[in-house]
Design goal:
The protein is mainly beta. It contains 10 helices and 30 strands. The chain has a 24-stranded antiparallel beta barrel. A two-stranded parallel ribbon has the order 1-2.
Amino acid sequence: MNQKQAILPLVLFLLTTMFGMAQDKPTSVLPWEKVYEEWLDVEDVDNQLSQQQYEFLQDLYNDKIDINHASREDLEQLPFLSAQQVEDIAEYLYRYGEMKSPGELQMITSIDAVTRRLLLQFVIFNFGHENSRFLTDSLYREPKGLSKLFSHIRQELIVSGKIPTYKRRGDQLPAMKGGYLGYQWKHSFRYTLSASNRLKLSLVGAQDSGEPFFCDGNGKGYDYYSGYLLYRIPQKYVDHELHGPRLREIVVGRYRLRTGMGLVINGNTNYGKASMLQSLGKGYTTITGHSSRSEANYLQGAAATVRLFEHNQTHIDLTGFASWRNIDATLDTVESGKAVIATLLRTGYHRTLSEMRRRNDASQWAVGGNINWRWHRWHAGLSGLYTQFDKALHPNHHLRYRQWSSEGRNFWNLSVDYGYTSSVVNVSGETATGDCGAIATINSLSLQLSQSLSLVALQRFYSYKFYSLLGNSFSAGGGVQNESGIYVGATWRPLRGLSIEGYADVAYFSWAKYLVSKASHYYESMLSLRYERNGWALAARYRWKNRQQDGTSDAAGKKPLIWQSEQRMRIYAEYGNSGWNGRLQLDGSLCDKGSDHSHGWMVSAQCGWRSHRIALWGNASYFNTSDYLSRLYAYERGLLYTMSVPMSYGEGIRYSFLFSYSVGSHLTLNGKLSIVDYFDRNHISTGRQQIDASSQTDVELQIRVRL
């Protein structure tokens, strides 16, 4: 297919899209994935949507939160709500009582239109005498006891499969020469049982392409299983007076945990800078079950939260956890002959003999907890973590950027988090230390100056000697180590429907990093404009990032630092109503690395139609970039629990089609066809993943059963 032949169907698709978008009257009701995409548009263009976080949001969508009887902790699970917005919702309910309709959210001025539409996808409005608060939380003292708990049971089973129409090099090589042990199909299942929004059971099994199934060292069938049982007491059963400890939630199995601002414990992945700032000031501890297909960032064992004290607007919660799990690792042998861990692996792939040998080569214990105190608008917490490996960590310290990596078998961390939240100001922070003897601290300030203007500032300092094996917080360098910086951002809505957002971030790395042999600097800024009216949305975004990296060695063998600059732009127009939704988008990039220059552009179109039983969606894009550095991304709708932002570089066209059909109220059939054609190459990817063709086609099928 030549360029002209490829562009012609794309142009026809664009015209068809615009014709279809002009048919019906607009409405504000949109699928939650689409509303979420609107909020995600202000994010880092290089940040692919976290599969783990998307699956978590899909679970929340299936089990919606009763906003009238939700605790702050319930609302704080939603990553798009800031601490001030959560406080404003709680304040509104305290002053005016239960919300009778979604329209009352418009009375909370800190919640903008996009966030409000997104929130409505995750909450319900139960009110009335039958939903009034009970005076007891006991399962056995509550009216009807266990029979009431199991009176509202929902079950869901989702079976998914991905069938490639091609063979990779790893599929063709024999296993003894590094080939894949299993077939190229990818499949998974997910079973969930929910009882009265209090008890939840989940089980997931997943198989990646190339992994063996009931053979070659994998006799358990699926390569990966994850499950948990969670029991949570909703806020509507909670009294305002407490005369003894009360269990709030408990989880057994695989789970994720976050305390404070994430310096010590944070199993939740992050979307990007703008969205992560939304959750930084909440100062809460959250336990969530791990039902993702991701094989990283989870604990295995049990965790529970107990309320120790409560009176009026003061309470103290204690969270404790214990975990033991096997982990993949690359082992090495030291001079004494002992096996040590050279590298911890988090990919979860077990496709080849070498990957199977590294499977479960080490194990990790972790115990700890958090005690959290809230008094009116103030909160403070103390977090502790102790973790131990069965073999000592022994990274390669000959690599300068690994000189201060964690080493040994036993590690501990302690932190104090603190903050104050109101409808106008939010101050929060966390300071941590550990056996490393170094300090890490992060502090933020948010101001809601008016209904239309909000400001945020954040400072962080992570010593190059500090490490936290389970920590994850705001950073430009990808971890809570070797970084100091200042971030400032603002959101301004000068006119109805018009939103202007921007931020600037400056960071300094005082020690070497990967591909950077000495101290270096980092700068980043972003400006986004969005205007909505009568179902239409027009938006533009510009992002600039400048960082230092090692250049080519000089005559003396030294590598001077050079600047790598990236400029990325996006413009799009979108229209949506109850049936149709369409979008036209143009992306561009200008990149410089020393004296090398590259650029890229991509035009894409999306169109979807939805009725009561049928949903259809299509996407097409043409891309042309100079190299990998100028690569581009565009959102692409996927099946349930699957969302992707595929990367495009070189020259080619990508298109996909998705359908969903509901057979009654219990059965749904989903399918997707994805095709990418490259014009500038005769093979795709490299190594074992190489496809000896210029085209790649994938078929995905899914069955969903609900009872």
